């Protein structure tokens, strides 16, 4: 990492240039996650599981996960959280780098026999310790490893974006269905108490009739050589990586599906980072009720903000979808309140996600963010790209 870059714990890249104050806040937030794991994000998991129409049941034993891809998100964010899970445990590692795999295996007590590389991956089907494969690879590899895992008879948790095309998403859903296995997408905000509380308030009329969502997500991309900036591996630019949070927020806060999109992109192609993928992209989504959402994503400026406005008030979240340190405000009746989610079990979004996946796999119930959720986002993302390329409104 260059000296101009700082690890960014509030965005998905893991790396961004940050101002000193922001960097210090991020460092403290991350230390809090690493050491205590459970501190951030009180409440909400029980509410998530029940409020979201899931039939998931607690499994009789902890289900074993194989983590595929030992990059930043897998090793720094997800793997440490197994220690806090009630229904999930780390069982196997899949990596192209045997030394790295052995290092993490030693740190987390994974036996040598449960280490796989990308060629031996399919043997995971014979491993009774592995119930769930968690795909944490570059985006264009999600479809292949999800399908291989399903064919090996394993349930799959796949990171966002689900894949890089609608066709891939459909093939993943079909493969898991054919194998009779559960497929869930790593949409952690659906397990995050502030976002869950915002969804509930909006749904229950706290801001009146829902009229408008504004959602911004972005960070400053560093190294031009990283996979996120390569079309073949990332599938696209800021929209695939960060704009997907803006699309998600518009959907889960309005509770509606968009019917049309109008989009514009702006990318400096002389910047070596953006030779292959878009930087700034902005769009308008039209919803059947007449609600509108403005969304955007960027790889050249920092954003993490969501607002939903109704005819009686509004909800503001900034940051809206970080790893920790969320802020939620309700503005109504001439006043503004900073809200904490209602008290509940001390579970953070990562633990909530892992355990919900285990519960869904064990019970055969549909997870609250199943493959169809990822497919719907990919339909919208493809429509956003088409609208920006063709300069016209596209119906979804
Ligand atoms: P990363 O670059 O840190 O890790 C990627 C891993 O894939 C590395 O271990 C790398 O060795 C491996 N890999 C295998 N084949 C590769 C290839 N051909 N090219 C490059 N790497 C290859 O990336 P990350 O930030 O951990 O992201 C991984 C996935 O997780 C992405 O899909 C990303 O969108 C997702 N993610 C989600 C969140 C979230 O909050 N839900 C956060 C970060 C990342």
UniProtKB/TrEMBL annotation:
GFO/IDH/MocA-like oxidoreductase domain: from which residue to which, for each copy? Answer: 197-315
Q: Which InterPro entries match?
A: Gfo/Idh/MocA-like_OxRdtase_N, Gfo/Idh/MocA_oxidrdct_glycsds, GFO_IDH_MocA-like_dom, Glc-Fru_OxRdtase_bac, NAD(P)-bd_dom_sf
Indicate the secretion signal residues.
none
Molecular function GO labels: nucleotide binding; oxidoreductase activity
Q: Give the UniProt keywords, A-Z.
A: Oxidoreductase
Keyword set includes Membrane: no
Record-annotated Gfo/Idh/MocA-like oxidoreductase N-terminal domain positions: 64-187
Q: Which Pfam families does the protein's record reference?
A: GFO_IDH_MocA (PF01408), GFO_IDH_MocA_C3 (PF22725)
Report what the protein is called: Gfo/Idh/MocA family oxidoreductase
Biological source species: Sphingomonas parva
């Amino acid at each position: 990492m260059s000296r101009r870059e700082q690890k960014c714990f509030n965005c998905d890249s893991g790396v961004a240039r940050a101002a000193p104050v922001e960097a210090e806040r991020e460092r403290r937030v991350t230390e809090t996650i690493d050491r205590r794991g459970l501190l951030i994000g009180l409440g909400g998991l029980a509410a998530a599981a029940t409020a979201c129409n899931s039939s998931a049941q607690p499994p009789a034993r902890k289900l074993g996960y194989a983590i595929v891809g030992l990059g930043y998100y897998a090793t720094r964010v997800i793997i440490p959280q197994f220690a806090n899970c009630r229904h999930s445990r780390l069982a196997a590692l899949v990596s192209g780098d045997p030394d790295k795999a052995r290092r993490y295996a030693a740190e987390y007590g994974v036996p040598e026999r449960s280490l796989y590389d990308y060629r031996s991956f399919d043997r995971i089907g014979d491993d009774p310790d592995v119930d769930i494969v968690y795909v944490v690879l570059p985006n264009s590899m999600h479809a292949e490893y999800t399908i291989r895992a399903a064919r090996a008879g394993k349930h799959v948790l796949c990171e966002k974006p689900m894949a890089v095309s609608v066709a891939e998403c459909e093939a993943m859903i079909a493969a898991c269905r054919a194998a009779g296995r559960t497929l869930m997408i790593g949409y952690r905000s659906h397990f995050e108490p502030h976002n869950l509380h915002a969804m509930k308030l909006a749904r229950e009329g706290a801001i009146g009739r829902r009229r408008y969502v504004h959602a911004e997500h972005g960070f400053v991309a560093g190294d031009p050589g990283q996979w996120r900036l390569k079309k073949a591996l990332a599938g696209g630019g800021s929209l695939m990586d960060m704009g997907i949070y803006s699309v998600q927020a518009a959907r889960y806060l309005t509770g509606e599906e968009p019917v049309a999109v109008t989009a514009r992109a702006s990318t400096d192609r002389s910047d070596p980072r953006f030779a292959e993928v878009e930087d700034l992209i902005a769009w308008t989504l039209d919803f059947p009720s007449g609600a509108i959402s403005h969304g955007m994503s960027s790889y050249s400026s920092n954003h993490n903000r969501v607002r939903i406005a109704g005819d009686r008030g509004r909800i503001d979240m900034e940051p809206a979808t970080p790893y920790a340190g969320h802020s939620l405000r309700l503005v109504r009746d001439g006043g503004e309140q900073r809200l904490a989610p209602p008290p509940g079990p001390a579970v953070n979004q990562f633990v909530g996600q892992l355990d919900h996946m285990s519960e869904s796999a064990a019970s055969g119930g549909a997870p609250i963010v199943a493959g169809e959720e990822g497919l719907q986002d990919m339909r919208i993302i493809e429509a956003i790209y088409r609208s920006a390329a063709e300069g016209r409104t596209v119906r979804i």
